[in-house]
Amino acid sequence: MNPQRTKARKAVAKARQQGISTNLKITIGMVVAAVVVLATALVIGRAGDGTPVPAAARDDSHRISTAADGRVTVVEFLDFECAACGAAYPGVERLRADYGNSITYVVRYFPIASHPNAYTSAHAAEAAARQGAFEPMYRKLFDNQRAWGGQRQDRTETFIGYARELGLDSEKFRADMADPAVDARVRAEADDGVRLGVQGTPTFFVNGVEYEPDALKQAIDQALSR
Q1: Angstrom distance (rounded) from CA 208 to CA 38
Q2: Burial 36-67 (b: 16+ CB within 10 A, else e)
Q3: 3-state secondary structure of 63
Q4: Cα distances (angstroms) measured from residue 46 to each of 50, 51, 109, 137, 214
Q5: How confident is the model at residue 4 (pLDDT cuts 50, 70, 90)?
């Protein structure tokens, strides 16, 4: 065989070999990329530690207004003793009045540990919820926040007084406030908030997206117009 032709054939074979290797590398790269995309898709909605991220509202979350069409859900993570939440409360009530049953409004607990009665007030709201009076207690706590908030002493008796004023069974209310299951519910809501990235109160979500308080109306209007 012609030595030059043999040499040329060897060169072509080598080139083909290199080409196959390159194509193989590209193919592997594409497969890896596809796997990464798939893995990303599978973990969307999960926290960085692999813990599933909760929806802003759960099925058993407290709804103080409900839209029949379910198109727009506003969720507020709050602390009843938080001064900023108290300041936002009148605006929230105006917002609810303006939109009525066009939106679902959800309230969730996020007690701040530095507030002496943050957890106690959340327990009061949850105890009232057990008697079908979450919203009346929600209003009572905010309407009277200046009277009980920011004080070191335990305000349990104050909240039991509010329960009486609302016509609730005060003994049941007292027992429910001390029920470990009530505390567990409050802490579970706060844990949900942490996993959603809530860092302070009030924090608002519209259809699962966080918004600043002054952007709520625009966000709601945009969601309703879709």
Answers
A1: 23
A2: eeeeeeeeeeeeeeeeeebebbeeebbbbbeb
A3: strand
A4: 6, 6, 21, 34, 28
A5: very low
What is the signed CA dihedral for 59, 63, 67, 72, rounded to 10 degrees? -70
Count of beta carbons in the 10 Å neighbourhood of residue 141: 27
Contact 77/108 with Cβ under 8 angstroms?
yes
The two tokens of residue 132 are: 């079908």
Say which CATH topology domain 62-225 has: Glutaredoxin (3.40.30)
Question: Does residue 3 have a cis peptide bond before it, meaning omega lies within 30 degrees of 0?
Answer: no
**Cα(58)–Cα(77) distance, integer angstroms:** 13
Find, among 173, 142, 144, the residue nearest to 157 by Cα.
173
User: For 111-142, how does the pLDDT look when each residue is reduced to its tens digit (9 = 90+)?
Assistant: 999 999 999 999 999 999 999 999 999 999 99
What gap in Å lies between CA 157 and CA 171, rounded to an integer?
11
